[in-house]
Amino acid sequence: MSTTNGSIAPGASRTTLAPPATNTTRPRSTGLIPTNNVTTKEGVTVRTRIDPTLTVDDVVRQLCVNLKVTEPSSNFALRDKDTDELVVNENLRKKIKNKANLKLVNSPNIEAAEIVQKLLVRDDRTCKMALWSLKKFIREEKFAQEFLSHGGLAELAQIICTEHGNTLAYALEAMHNLMDLDYGWSTLDNTFVFKVVQILSSPNSLINVCRPATAILKKLVEADPMNAPGPLIASSSRAPPVAPPGSVYRYGFQIVFQQMRREKGSLETVVNRLGSADTAMILHSMMLINSLLSHVNDTEWDEFISELERLNVRKAVIRLMSSHNIDDLTSSILDFQANIVRVTYRKKSTLVEPEVEPLHESALEYIWHCSKVQEERDSDGEVLKWQKLGFLSENLVHEFQEVGELGLDCLRNFVADDPDLFSKVILEQLSRPVDRRCPIARASNEIVELLAEHWMIFAPAYSTSTTYQPFFLNFYRVHALATQFFLRMWNESGSAAGDFSRIVALARSQVKVALQRENMKPWHEVEHDFLDCEYRAVRDRQMQELEAEDDLLSKVPVRNLKEKITRESAEFVRQQRIQCLFQGAWFVNGIPTPANGPSRRPNGHWRFIRLDNGLKYLHYVDSAVQFAVRNGLEDLPERIEIAAITQIATGTCASPPNNLRDHLDLSPPSNLTPSPLSFSLLTATEGSLADQIASDQLRWADWTDGLNMLRRDSGHVTSDETAGYIKALTEIGLKIKLLDLSGEKVDIPSGLVAGPPPSNTDFFFSDLI
Length: 769
Hints:
The chain is α+β, with helices and mostly antiparallel strands.
């Protein structure tokens, strides 16, 4: 207890209490200023002065002594009365400084044991209350360790496998929160995974059940051995490496997709929920699809991608792009767009081998069948088949070498759109003299090259687009329109075989025009640009473009060189952005706008954030003023786990008004305007982990794009600055390389012929004599 003059006698407790106030007596003054109110389990609130140099265990022990509690102090813990947050050594100073209202409660080991016992009872009301507490406390490492040590994981999994309704919803949320830890749930088996798939797929499942079930599957997909920290264990020469025993990184795409195969229609259900009226359900479904796309393995790649295409997932995402009321989905949609860039690049890089791959053989047989053309033999007895469709030779591996499987898919889709029209066009071309025929198959492949160049399908790593690209997601339809344009230009201009490159140049020009302002342009205008434009107008515009732009950049060797430099530029910018995160920076703590929901209130006007060297946590400190932060993490007591961040949303919060900067307990006004330099770190379940405002556009770009590039399942960039840097570096690098063509062995035809050397070279040295 405190002394009357406010001092503590030698050997006395450094956690002191003031007598509780009553309605009839005023509390006796002790001379010490209390720091916090503490409420006991019996509901009595006492004022206390807590020494910030103590550990939490010491504080609890002294509280028990002062309150004359007979039970061991190890049975108790402190929690924030308002938020239920467990008080630990890392946040004790913060709680004292903020004068947080605390409460004396059961320690995590007692709480965990009691909750496990309640789960064993299986009484509906008791079980629900226990699960409600469990989903909150399970995020705390001390509690989670005790819960796991008491066999809680098996009981929780059993409840998920047997219960339904809200009880099931609470259990799934608790399991999802537990899976934020990178240990403790490695014993979940295929039976459990299959049950979660069944829950997700059931038409009778409540929306609050489907959300956490979808989130759990996402966690399992991302628990891939290749994502495990530390070294992996090598297996057989053909099998991929595995994580160490007991690691939760033992699941991954293959485990989840195998169970989704067993439950017919499960993937279709996930795709269909992109049309849900519940925004959170859409977000969870979108993130699961992105995780599956990011982690699909080579074995199931063809099957999974084909199934997604069959389910028209691109069409569903395009519909989301046009929904003006779903701003929270922006990051996930851009992630999906980046994933499709990777899918497209892989298809373009995959050789067409009909003698090896049955799917390639089947597609080619379909194209040939729809052409209704008969095979012929030339004078040497060689079969003439594919040349009649417009290829240069019968060697299809060579014909599709530049466009790969993507070119084959595009040609097949072009045929499938209208098989009768395709046959009519082919037969019409064959009726013409050989040199007047439009080579449809070559034209199709050339259009694929033009579209890949336009959308920069150069590298599997990153998409530099910062805006929606609905036409890119409609790649096959755009290809069909552009191929029809090519055929029409050929016919209207009366072209011959030697004019092929000239029509390609016209098509390149029209692609640029038709696909500009992609995020704002309606589809019918794209159709008009390709189907209704006149040859002379296109030719006149192209001539003007050629006057302003050197045609050198359209040559194939230069395009290949540009692809290589684009990949290098993207990786260079990624490393630069992550270096900015390592250095750290000061940000203003913003106030989220009402549309973006609640967030955690900061402890000061400023926040310094720095990424740790392990790329796992963002460490930070809040302060009323900026100060010189030392290297390392000693000055940064708080942290945010990178894996918990599901979205980096931009334009989400406003600067606090002057009257709130020093009074964070006041409620902000409702009419705040979001800052264009703001961003929020969002989770799927907890809302915002941080709401920050950068000091300038460059810092905003460094951090938003650095964080996006850091996340495993994200490949897009947010800012025009970063996209511009990658483009500028590519252009500069390309120009430098073109000055040294021999170094890259780039073969670019040139009409320039070197003349004879000058007869007198004295002028080179005249200025030096």
